[in-house]
């Protein structure tokens, strides 16, 4: 995961502090020396690191540590707040035009992920019931237009193009008109990238800017390039007023330097982050959540939001009812597993839970997707009656299921035992709760 190295190092530093009953000034200084090294190693801009450490020290030493019950936690809290501040404090939302369409100009160097991010942004808007239009204004990179068309088709968003013989300025102008004529409320301009920043590119972007008067100018930068991403952002920002940054490839093992330095160096906030090559909705960037994720305090809010958007509320309510009444069958079990799976790869989910990132590192907890596949195969090899009445699963049935699912009888036995235990627990729980809440009456 991105930030893994930084996250582990910071957690070690604070682990030591947390254990102390008293924290002296020397302890704080020592911890800050380590934090400084960790940040530099994560490729955070050196000036940013210097300012950051100075701010944390000032706040930490000013406090009367000895009087606090949890001095270590106080320091972690200060670092958490300062990290959040460093990344912009609060979430920077996407601008909205007073009169639609809202125009978003996407800029960036070739390969940063501009075309991919444009499609992800369109998907995000579409998900919140908007009608975006993608405009193919990159006429230089071979196949860029085709790439956008393919992505647009994949997500069901219209793509406006005039081929590669018309100027980007004209394409942008006509695209905007097309959106107005067709009642589309967001226009995403996928402009040309270059291998390096050059005058011709900037000129073209300025002209497109002039005719379209965008509400947002988002620069797409590749997090994997670390400080280089920050330099690119600074150059673009000095020539073309950016309104925000989209940081891509955060799925890779980026050390995190770009995410932590962009705002402080350029003054321009990160508005979105992108992970993966698949076209999923672009994720809004939340500085406070990112900070607590780096510090291993988990990102429960993102997890909950993810759950809310991927899990069917009616199904969840039905499941909850079944659990209460202990009517839970293997079918429900499978369905519940599928719902959890929709949330995404399990190890990514683990990273969002407090303390879990650390546990994974200690190898106490290995998330094994294969194991889950095996469980799924076993349940799928059961027939209807068996799923509903697990008690009929005798040895010959278990043997058949093992053969059908490519597992062993031991695997099947283990799963049935787990399921039985779970049902027993639910029965106990529901009898304890009774039909009207806890027995013994809390009310
Ligand atoms: P453009 O030249 O800036 O338009 O870049 P593209 O959108 O064509 O992306 C360049 C490459 O990076 C493609 O292979 C994309 O699939 C890949 N890519 C884009 N965004 C991400 C991301 O967030 N994560 C990963 N892993 N790959 C990405």
The SSE order reads: HHHHEHEHEHEHEHEHEEHHHHHHHHHH
- Known CATH architecture of the largest domain: 3-Layer(aba) Sandwich
Instruction: Give the class-level CATH name of the largest domain.
Output: Alpha Beta
Give the cofactors and ligands: guanosine-5'-diphosphate
Which fold name corresponds to the CATH topology of the largest domain?
A: Rossmann fold
Shape: flat
The main sheet orders its strands as 3-2-4-1-5-6-7-8
User: Looking at the chains present, what oligomeric state does this protein adopt?
Assistant: single chain
Number of E-type strands: 8
Instruction: Please give the domain count.
Output: 3
Average pLDDT rating? 83
Within CATH, the superfamily of the largest domain carries the name P-loop containing nucleotide triphosphate hydrolases
**Unreliable segments (pLDDT under 50, ≥5 consecutive)?**
358-367, 433-443
Report how far apart the termini are.
47 Å
**Number of helical stretches of at least 4 residues:** 20
Structural class: alpha/beta
Q: What does the largest sheet look like?
A: 8 strands, mixed
The radius of gyration over CA amounts to 26 Å
In a nutshell, what does this entry contain?
This protein has helices at residues 4-18, 25-41, 46-62, 71-86, 114-127, 144-155, 168-181, 199-212, 227-239, 257-266, 287-294, 300-310, 313-325, 330-342, 346-352, 356-361, 369-380, 384-388, 395-405, 409-433, and strands spanning 102-108, 132-137, 159-160, 186-191, 216-222, 244-248, 270-273, 283-284. The chain has 443 residues and is of the alpha/beta class. It folds into 3 domains: 4-86, SRP54, nucleotide-binding domain (Four Helix Bundle (Hemerythrin (Met), subunit A)), CATH 1.20.120; 102-297, Rossmann fold; 307-433, Signal recognition particle, SRP54 subunit, M-domain (434 Repressor (Amino-terminal Domain)), CATH 1.10.260.
